């Protein structure tokens, strides 16, 4: 199974983000868009995991979340990695508030004990809206002009962290919660 650790969003926030990003989809840029129910904040991608290792994965997430309290997470702004001119990922931003950074650091630390390598790049929290298609490898022409006027701002309460399973199919990925850890009130 293909697993990752994530913070999920309330359905109404997913729908609001999808609506705010409508001009991007109408611009016909060469991007494979994420369906609204697939919007999430990835804390760590684990990749292919033997089902026999699900129990240690769950235990690591439980340890990583021990002592963590629910917290507000501001969302907002549109952008692209590595840049609008050379976009590979188009996203909505998440503010790197201290409780989120501590939670993500705890996840990295605990999963390193299971031989999942530490992420080599700095943590840049975001919600992936879409990924550039192969024909856009040289860049997505005009993306900066489409991104500039877009607006979205909201705040969610992060109350849980999930072990998610990603199942790839012809219509894109389907995400299912395999385990959820509730943060302290």
Put the structure in a nutshell:
The chain is of the alpha+beta class and about 180 residues long.
Describe this structure in words.
By secondary structure, this protein is of the alpha+beta class. It has one domain: Cyclic phosphodiesterase (Cyclic Phosphodiesterase, Chain: A, Alpha-Beta Complex), CATH 3.90.1140.10. 25% of the residues lie in helices and 38% in strands. It has 5 helices and 9 strands, in the order βααββαββαβαβββ. The strands form 2 sheets. The protein has a 5-stranded antiparallel sheet, with helices on one face. A hairpin with a 7-residue loop joins strand 4 and strand 5. Helix 3 packs antiparallel against helix 4. The two termini are 31 Å apart.
**How many structurally independent domains?**
1
- CATH architecture, by name, is Alpha-Beta Complex
CATH class term: Alpha Beta
Task: State the major sheet.
Answer: 5 strands, antiparallel
Low-confidence stretches: none
Q: Number of helical segments?
A: 5
Through-space gap between termini: 31 Å
- Report the structural category: alpha+beta
Percent range for helical residues? 25-40%
Q: How much of the residues is beta strand, in percent?
A: 35-45%
> Can you tell me the CATH superfamily?
Cyclic phosphodiesterase
């Amino acid at each position: 199974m293909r697993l990752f650790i994530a913070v999920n969003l309330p359905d109404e926030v997913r729908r609001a983000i999808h609506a705010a990003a409508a001009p991007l989809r109408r611009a016909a840029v060469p991007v494979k868009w994420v369906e609204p129910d697939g919007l999430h904040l990835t804390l760590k991608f684990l990749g292919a995991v033997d089902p026999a290792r699900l129990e240690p994965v769950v235990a690591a997430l439980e340890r990583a979340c021990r002592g963590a309290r629910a917290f507000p997470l501001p969302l907002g702004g549109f952008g692209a990695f590595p840049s609008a001119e050379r976009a590979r990922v188009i996203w909505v931003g998440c503010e790197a508030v201290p409780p989120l950074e501590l939670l993500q650091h705890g996840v990295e630390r605990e999963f390193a004990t299971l031989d999942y390598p530490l992420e080599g790049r700095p943590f840049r929290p975001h919600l992936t809206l879409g990924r550039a298609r192969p024909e856009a490898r040289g860049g997505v022409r005009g993306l900066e002009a489409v991104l500039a006027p877009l607006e979205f701002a909201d705040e969610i309460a992060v109350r849980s962290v999930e072990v998610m399973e990603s199942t790839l199919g012809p219509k894109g990925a389907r995400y299912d919660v395999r385990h959820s850890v509730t943060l302290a009130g």
